[in-house]
Amino acid sequence: MNEQLKNEEFRKEWEENQPEMDIIRAMADARISQNLTQKELAERTGINQADISKLENGTRNPSLKLLKRLADGMGMDLKLVFTPKEPQNLKLAK
Questions:
Q1: pLDDT average, residue stretch 72-85
Q2: How far apart are CA 61 and CA 77, in angstroms?
Q3: Using one digit for the tens of pLDDT, what is the confidence trace for 8-58?
Q4: CA 26 to chain CA centroid, nearest Å
Q5: Dihedral angle at the C-alpha atoms of 52, 58, 63, 64, nearest 10 degrees?
Q6: Rounded to an integer, what distance in angstroms lies between the CA atom of residue 36 and that of residue 20?
Q7: How many structural domains compose the chain?
Q8: pLDDT of residue 2
């Protein structure tokens, strides 16, 4: 991965997609931590199971309203955090 991140085009694409990947990972991790299936979460939220699957595999981007419904269905609060960007050289070292 470090070698690929040295490629400017790859690194730029990776960085642009990272926030979406973080949301997808957080959503799936929250569901799994509660031992919920996608079907069970769909029943709790009224969101179609196929749509939850699309969200988790990255083929659909969720709105904030949809993320709030998912959080509510899992008995969780939705929090968005803005954090300072890391210096470029630290990103490549990871």
A1: 92
A2: 19
A3: 888 888 888 888 889 999 999 999 999 999 999 999 999 999 999 999 998
A4: 5
A5: 90
A6: 22
A7: 1
A8: 79
Q: Which amino acid is at 14?
A: W
* Domain at 18, CATH number: 1.10.260.40
Whole-angstrom distance, CA of residue 14 vs CA of residue 18: 6
Structure tokens, 42: 């769909």
Q: What pTM, to 2 d.p., does this model score?
A: 0.75
CA 44/CA 36 separation, integer angstroms: 10
- The residue type of 32 is I
Instruction: Provide the token pair at 71.
Output: 């959080």
Residue 43: both structure tokens together: 């029943």
Range of the domain at 77: 2-93
Task: Determine the residue type at 58.
Answer: G
